[in-house]
Design brief:
By secondary structure, this protein is mainly alpha-helical. The chain has 7 helices and 3 strands.
Length: 130
């Protein structure tokens, strides 16, 4: 795998998990605080088995923490993994940073063969970096 592909693989995996509308809605509910799956199901109008499936995917990806009730272990409460949230925010900020955009002209194609490719100017290079 090339440098750019391996660097973005983790970001792509996180975004893929969150790209599902149901999982995103569950994460949104969990941003309000700890919830049990029955409350999540009621809030979203989803059957318990579907909520459990999506919570498992979120848990396996590290987005959600699960905590059993100390008095009755049949009850499980879910919350957002704040570390994972912070990590994604940092990854997205770095990936989408406009300062990463560099002036670059094509290095292939018909314009290079005929010698009519646009030449970089000092103002273009300076403007693109600010």
């Amino acid at each position: 795998m090339g440098k750019n592909l391996s660097a973005t693989a983790g970001l792509a995996a996180s975004l893929k998990v969150l790209a599902d509308p149901t999982r995103l809605a569950i994460l949104d509910l969990l941003m309000e605080g700890m919830q049990c799956n029955c409350v999540i199901g009621d809030q979203l109008g989803l059957p318990m088995n579907l909520v459990s499936h999506h919570l498992r995917v979120l848990r396996e990806a590290g987005w959600v923490n699960a905590q059993r009730d100390p008095l009755d272990s049949r009850w499980v409460y879910y919350s957002v993994n704040e570390h994972k949230l912070t990590q994604l925010r940092q990854q997205l900020a770095a990936f989408l940073d406009p300062k990463r955009i560099q002036p670059r002209l094509p290095t292939c194609g018909p314009q290079l063969a005929c010698g009519c490719a646009p030449q970089p100017t000092e103002s273009t290079a300076t403007t693109s970096r600010t």
